[in-house]
Amino acid sequence: IEEGIREVMGAIAHFPGTVDHILSEYTRVTTEGGRLSDVLSGYIDPDDGIAPPAAEVPPPVDAKAAKADDDTEDDEAEASTDDEDEVESGPDPIIAAQRFGAVSD
């Protein structure tokens, strides 16, 4: 699977206009504002031969135990969401700037 993902990404990168489009989207996000994660989700190291990990899948949970936990967590979540700011997650903007700078050169 990982090898197939790498091959598809390589083919897409060689398609005319793809790199220019991604660079323009990165520029748009950095100048006009937006989320970097809308442009990219991660990087593939060409030397490791392994694709980046997919989103973690939580282990199966006992349905009865989960229901009991959900009742108490819902009350706590409602109280805490008002005070918390949304934290940006995703690719590091500094590393992204370095990598996009190298590609645009």
Automatic annotation (TrEMBL):
Residues 44-105 are annotated as: Disordered. Residues 70-89 have a biased composition (Acidic residues). InterPro entries: RNA_pol_sigma_70_non-ess, RNA_pol_sigma_r2. SUPFAM superfamilies: Sigma2 domain of RNA polymerase sigma factors (SSF88946). GO terms for biological process: DNA-templated transcription initiation. Coiled coil: none annotated. Residues 15-104 form the RNA polymerase sigma factor 70 non-essential domain. It holds the Pfam family Sigma70_ner. GO terms for molecular function: DNA binding; sigma factor activity. This is RNA polymerase sigma factor.
